[in-house]
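Lab channel / #folding
Pinned by the channel admin:
"Please post every new chain as: sequence first, then the structure tokens as a reply. Keep commentary short and put observations after the output so the thread stays searchable."

First post following the new format, from NK:
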Amino acid sequence: MVIRLNAPVDPEDFRRAGIRVLDDTNGRTVIAFADDPQLLEFHARLTAYKAGPAEGNKHPSYQGFLDAIDTGAEYVGDDKISRRLRDHQATVLPEVALVLDVECWHPGDPAAAEEWRNEVRLKVTQLGGEVLDSYLSNSSLLSLLRVRLQSRHVSTIAEMSAVARVDLRPEPLLTMHDVFNATADDLPAVGAPARDAPIVGVIDSGVRDAHPLLAPAMRDTVVLARSIADARDRDGHGTAVTSLVLHGQLEPLLNERQTPDPVCWILSVRVLDDEHQFPDDELWERLLAEAVEYCADHGARIVNLSVGSALTPYSGAKATPVAALLDEVARRRNLVLVISTGNVAAAAYLAEVDADTPHTYVERLGVSDETRMIDPAPAALALTVGAVCHDPQVGALAREAVEQRPLGNADWPSPFTRRGPGMKDSVKPELVAPGGTLAYDDAAHALTQVPALKLVVASARPDRLLGMDLGTSYAAPLVTHVVAGVAGRHPEASANLLRALTLQSAVETRFWQDLTGGSENERRERARALQGYGRARFEEARSSTNHRVVMYGTAGIRADDVQMWEFPVPRSFTQSSGDRELVVALAFDPPTRGRRLDYLASTMQFEVLRGIKPEVVDAIYRAATEDELEATPEGEDSDPPTDEPKSVAEIGRRRIELEPSANARRGGANQLARWRFKHRLRAEEETYLLMVRNVSSWAGEADLQDYAIAIAWVEDSERDPIYVELEARLRVPIEIEIRA
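Reply from TO:
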């Protein structure tokens, strides 16, 4: 059984009840009974407890023990199959053989542990599978098997009472031989970018500009530091970053031998020395500012910064000096800056590592002061990027021992990523991308790196074309790749619009569902501090599909004004129910002042309204007092009233309940919110209103703040397409006034 406790229970109470505790992590306690009589005895205790106090007694029997149990249920096979494995099974045929890691329960008795493990070995063999490796540690209470088994038999193994967990072993597309022995002939032939493709600045350790994956896209390589001799990359970091900016994740590209055209041109500016450090005799703040200006002077619209200073972690107060410098340059030069959160050593926030660390590290990662972002990641106008754990096909296949277990599950925060929030509790990082993860080696009782959990990158070594590495440094260029793809599709887009379109592509990870403790809103907030709004996606950022329609626009708004955008609702949404989603992204670039607690000249927020006319909202807001405007919104009413609202408070009943709330996202210059729903929308609601408000902190009344919005309607792909209908309605040649 799996039970959840609301109070600590003395282990002796379990023993006296004839119960073995098999697992006590992730807010759950998994228990087992040695035999049927003990199970019957436990049910007898439950019956006595439910009967109330016996005559002459004040409390029911076993009250202290049983009161601590909130819920209890049978621990069935579906509970043991990882989400990653379940998702993968949905994409393969039942007879496809999978390599699986099977963890068996270890009850603390070595003989019983061996017996249980042998039961599983026998069943795998009976099902036509093969046991590839095994590991048993009585000191760590760990019993593991690596097996090859057809997908259709996974549930049979998971149903065995001796089995604790079944997971898909990472299955990289490439092998170690593919990576370390690749020649120029083994790599795909890379074409040159389009002549008008955007230029991306990569400020890093230089680049190996003759590398066959990079050479066709190199615009220039320069060095600005006085004490660095040339722009050549001797550290390898800049070359690796550049390969991901140009191509995204390399594993599919190399496996399929595609002939890619890079999405951009590269301008490499070297600021790091051979030891991957900023020169001691030069101000790194000046170097970074000059490097960004240089990129802008030479045509770059996007700049990747996978660099930072671990000596200046963000304290949560005012802006750091470099972040303030970069924000000022980004606004003045109309640039998109993409910055990694920085890396943290696990030892900095974990007092010790043990067999539970692969599942428990995230609790400390999310609260430790040692894991805060480092300069310049807090830059408000930048897209800041954290790292998530391995994808199943990332890395290179090697013979890892079964006792080397990955930290985290797919889309969990990498154990070295850093966290937000940013200034004024803004959402930082805004986005995440794969950065790899570590493994726990039970035999060595230590964390280690394994090839299957790293990313494949271009190498700067003279004897090697490909290499592998991990870190947030490689998550950032994967997002830069997306931004560059958007800029190539929309060459006239402002930096605000590039950020908004990139943001709206983000898919929320399911990591928050794996957190324990607190309400759903609290778990989502904890997840946002590590993962922001989710993972940016290349195609979704660049264009619409039949079932995912993106609308966007740009405008200027004065201080303390409100503007409204009217956008159509797909008519099919009013005719049937189904899985649907509304996504709204906002990006703006306010003036900043580094020495002020009110860092941004103004803040912006948005709400989506239903069943109300723009002119009614306009009149109410013009007549509203400041107190009314600052009142907390009431949120969504599933059946909004039909009578016309008379006040800001009554408008609140027309608000869609977006997630996260306006208060949770209002401090940032990059915002995203979603509304997921299944119900059929009201037939009379053919359009919704996006209400955008600009609240001045110290901006002048006459200042015009530029901003961009992106709105996406998303539906189940099994339904009728919505693109053609919305395109026809939006192409009607009429003027739509922006009401301010």
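NK: The domain at 197-345+372-397+412-434+458-531 is CATH 3.40.50.200 (Rossmann fold).
TO: also worth noting, The chain has four domains: 2-73, 77-169, 197-345+372-397+412-434+458-531, 544-730.
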